[in-house]
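We modelled the chain as a single entity of 55 amino acids. Its sequence is:
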Amino acid sequence: MVEWYDFFVFSTASDLLFPESFFPRAQQATGLLASFATFWVVRWALFAVWWRRCC
């Protein structure tokens, strides 16, 4: 349950907060795509670390 809450909070933040905070010079759509791309890269990296420890 905590994982879904974490996913929801960070995906919402990557939509509303991160484009203006981390990519201020980019256009709105470009900042949004860069924000989502960063979110997914970090998410997959953390999943890979977890997978390596568990399996």
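As a brief sanity check on the tokenised model: The mean pLDDT is 83. The CA atoms of residues 35 and 48 lie 20 Å apart.
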